[in-house]
Structures are given as structure tokens and as C-alpha cells.
Design a protein that fits this description.
CATH topology: MetI-like fold
Order of helices and strands: HEEHHHHHHHEEHHH
Subcellular location: Membrane
Strand content: under 5%
CATH class: Mainly Alpha
Radius of gyration: 31 Å
Number of domains: 1
Main location: membrane
InterPro entries: MetI-like (IPR000515), MetI-like_sf (IPR035906)
Domain ABC transmembrane type-1: 97-289
GO biological process, one term: transmembrane transport
Largest sheet: 2 strands, antiparallel
Helix content: 55-70%
Number of helices: 11
CATH architecture: Orthogonal Bundle
Structural class: mainly alpha
Length: 342
């Protein structure tokens, strides 16, 4: 762990991620759960600009079409976005790691058959499965939601984790099977080690670094799927839908999470570009932070393996070697003569 904090990549990614995550809770604690609303900008008693307001010192990322401050909405929704992505990846790994080790050890004979069923899933976009499974949960019905925001987030996390568990399990199983064929594993099996002991004592320690990297990759993949669902108007925590046929508002995010902010404002990209670019840049920064942490962790782990220095070897000249051989030959002749005398 000490080497991690000496890696600038890991420290940079950790601080950037902590800024959004911790800052979101602090911002809500200071300013409340709702962003401030500004309809007009007044100067000398005259309206000089109406919502959506362009970026300024008062509103660094501008305001949306309803006058809500975009920076406040982004900070309020950061915790929902980041915690949901990390939760999806965590649940996915908790289920996939035991299954992967089982595929690579206990189910070796069936591994080819299992992979033949899982391989086609690589070519199907996960967004389609996510949309079909999450639509009944996240799309608000006419009578309103019967669950809370966090309950819907938990359901979404579990469903999105289950969707890609087979793919991740097959990946871990193939890697575990390669290690299971190594000579030191064969020696342990010969000495009577059980498969469960081999997994806990050999396979898991050998794959621990790769599993951490895989977890980071799953977080990034989840964030990308969130953006896709946002464009399809399925937002984290639920989509607020107005069924008023005359004065109904377009679907919007309930929790101010970034996927909802990006999806609901994407149609304003041409005229009001700061609305979708704000959450898009935040998505990019969080992905950059996770990638930096993975790079820093990889460098720290590789730095733990120290190559032993070779001992200095003194080289001798050819003349010295010939002289030693001559001395050895003379000694052998003397010993042979003494033996003949006896």
C-alpha cells in the first residue's frame, strides 16, 4: 500500500475521484438537496439574459432551460453516478470471481461448452439488455413510483451486474485454467492439495492484481452504459415522466445523476452546448481518474518485484589458466610416480 501513494498516477486519480465523491456529499450538506434557480439576469433594471444562462462566475457551467445551476446539479448527482458504477462493478466481481474459479478448476471438462454459450454475448450490446430489463423499474408509471430512489438504484445495480456476469466469469475462468496447468500447481495437486486450497493459496494470490485491474475496467464499462441509457431516457434512480397532454415536461432525472443530465440535455447540443458538455466532461474526468489509478496500481505492483543483482565475477587471463593447468598436471605426475614406487 505504501508504494501506491508514491505513484503520481494513482494519487492523481484518487484525488480526482475523491473530489467528486466526497465533494458531492459536502455540497449537499452545505447547499441542500435542490439546486438554486435563476430565471433572469438583471442589469440596471433590465433583463439582459434569460434561462438557459451561459457560463459565468455566478454559474460556472451555466444553467439549464429551467434556470437550475448546472454545476450544482452535477455536484449533487456525482455521488449517485459514481457509487452506482462502483456498486455494479463490485456486485459483478463478487459473483463472477467464484464462478470463474469454478469454471477454471472444477468444471474444466465443461469449460469449452460453457465458453461456446458465452462467446456470442460479446457481440450483443449490453445497453439493449439493460434497457429491456430496467425499463419497468426506472420509467415512472402514471400512478407514480412505489419505491424510493435508493431502492431503484439497488435494483438497477443488481440487474446490470447480472447481465455481464457470464462474460466476466468466462474471462476469469480462462485465466484460472491457464494457471491451473502450471508445474507448481501440478506439484501441489500431486502432494494432495484440494482444489479449494489451490484456489485460495495459489490462484487468487496470483490473479489478485489482474482482478483489481478488471474491476476498474468494469467501472469504466458501467459508466459508458450509463451514458447510453441516458440517451435512451432511462436515468439512474428513475425517470421523472409527465403525463400531462397539454403542459407536460420532457422526461428528466430525479437524482440529478450525470447520465440523466447528459441524456435530457443532449438535444440542446447545437444551441446551448454547455448543457450536455458539462456532464460529458465529468464522465470523462472520472474515467480518466479510474484509468490513472489502474496505471498507478500496475506500476506499484511491478515495482515490488526486485531483480536480484548479480554477484561480481572476477575474470582471469588465459596465461593464468594455462599456468594453473600446468601446475595441476605436474602434481598429478608426482603422485603417479610415488604410487609406482610403493
Amino acid at each position: 500500500m505504501k508504494l501506491l501513494w508514491k505513484q503520481p498516477y494513482f494519487v492523481f486519480g484518487f484525488l480526482l475521484l475523491a473530489f467528486f465523491l466526497i465533494g458531492s456529499f459536502v455540497f449537499e450538506w452545505i447547499n441542500g438537496p435542490d439546486p438554486k434557480q435563476t430565471y433572469f439576469l438583471m442589469e440596471k433594471g433590465r433583463v439582459i439574459e434569460a434561462a438557459p444562462l451561459s457560463p459565468s462566475w455566478l454559474h460556472p457551467l451555466g444553467t439549464d432551460q429551467y434556470g437550475y445551476d448546472m454545476f450544482a446539479k452535477i455536484m449533487l448527482g456525482a455521488k449517485y453516478t459514481i457509487i452506482s458504477a462502483m456498486g455494479v462493478a463490485a456486485v459483478r466481481m463478487l459473483i463472477a470471481v467464484p464462478l470463474g474459479f469454478a469454471i477454471g478448476t472444477y468444471w474444466q471438462k465443461r469449460r469449452t461448452t460453457i465458453n461456446s454459450f458465452i462467446d456470442p454475448l460479446h457481440y450483443v450490446p449490453m445497453t439493449i439488455f439493460s434497457y429491456l430489463m430496467l425499463y419497468p423499474v426506472l420509467w415512472e408509471p402514471m400512478e407514480g413510483f412505489s419505491t424510493t430512489v435508493w431502492e431503484r438504484i439497488v435494483i438497477q445495480v443488481v440487474l446490470m451486474a447480472i447481465i455481464t456476469v457470464p462474460i466476466v466469469s468466462a474471462l476469469i475462468g480462462n485465466e484460472a485454467n491457464l494457471l491451473y496447468q502450471q508445474e507448481y500447481i501440478l506439484a501441489s495437486r500431486t502432494l494432495g492439495a484440494s482444489k479449494s486450497r489451490i484456489i485460495t493459496r495459489h490462484l487468487f494470490p496470483m490473479m489478485r492484481e489482474k482482478l483489481f485491474v478488471l474491476y476498474g475496467q468494469q467501472v469504466v464499462e458501467t459508466l459508458v452504459v450509463f451514458t447510453h441509457l441516458g440517451l435512451l431516457q432511462l436515468y439512474i434512480g428513475g425517470t421523472d415522466v409527465s403525463y400531462d397532454p397539454m403542459m407536460g415536461d420532457p422526461p428528466k432525472s430525479i437524482a440529478y445523476e450525470w447520465a440523466g443530465l447528459f441524456g435530457s440535455s443532449f438535444r440542446y447540443l447545437q444551441g446551448v452546448p454547455w448543457l450536455p458538455l458539462g456532464p460529458a466532461i465529468c464522465f470523462a474526468l472520472v474515467i480518466l481518474a479510474i484509468a490513472s489509478m489502474i496505471e498507478g496500481y500496475t506500476r506499484a505492483v511491478s515495482g515490488q518485484v526486485k531483480i536480484p543483482r548479480r554477484k561480481k565475477v572476477s575474470f582471469v587471463s588465459d596465461k593464468t589458466v594455462e599456468w594453473n593447468q600446468q601446475q595441476l598436471k605436474e602434481k598429478m605426475q608426482l603422485l603417479y610416480k610415488e604410487k609406482q614406487k610403493l
